[in-house]
Amino acid sequence: MATIESVTLDVADPAAAHTFYTAAFGADTPLRLRASEAPTTGFRGFTLALTVSQPSTVDALVGAALDAGATSLKPAAKSLWGYGGVIQAPDGTIWKVATSAKKDTGPATRRIDEFVLLLGVADVAASKRFYVERGLAVAKSFARMYVEFDAGSGPVKLALYRRRALAKDLGVAPDGTGSHRLSIAGDAGPFTDPDGFAWEAASVAAAR
Fold it and tell me: What InterPro entries does the record tag this protein with (predicted)?
């Protein structure tokens, strides 16, 4: 079964981005940074989502990100499915921090339980077939709306959502052009998927 080892963000200033992400989410994440001035405007078509155990942990991570220079797109709040908030990092990447729990069961921490890459795609069914053919195993699938793949032993879980629905969930306009400013490293690559998301071999990302 194919797995994802890391994701790389193209950023204008890797040192500044590293300082931000370390302050916001800690140093122990499968995130890599690469210097790039690739042009992009509007929604980049993805979000990185951090799943945590309880609302106070959401607040702790969102608060740390805001203190480090992030912008709030959706303040942390309760919903039908749990509790969560959306922020945008100084480099432009959109992050969602969420939990399915609606009440705290212990003291606040900054522990991240799951690191999820959620891609906004034009055709969920077609993208699902594309990824299954490349060795990813489906864990959950809801018609043509949402697909979640089994992370296996990898630290990153991949999920697919319709692009417009994802943008609406994040509180941004769905339109965007230019580079995604994202590369995905795993043992399924290298290739580029139907929506232009680039995969590379994990060994290439590790060498940077």
Answer: Glyas_Bleomycin-R_OHBP_Dase
Per the structure, the count of domains in the chain is: 1
- Whichever domain contains 198, its CATH number is 3.10.180.10
Question: Model pTM greater than 0.90?
Answer: yes
CA angle 160, 166, 171 (to 5 degrees): 160
Dist CA 91 CA 88 (whole Å): 8
For 34-69, what is each residue's pLDDT tens digit? 999 999 999 999 999 999 999 999 999 999 999 999
Containing structural domain, residue 8: 4-207
Beta bridge partners of 198: 183, 192
- On whether the CB atoms of residues 58 and 101 are closer than 8 A, the answer is no
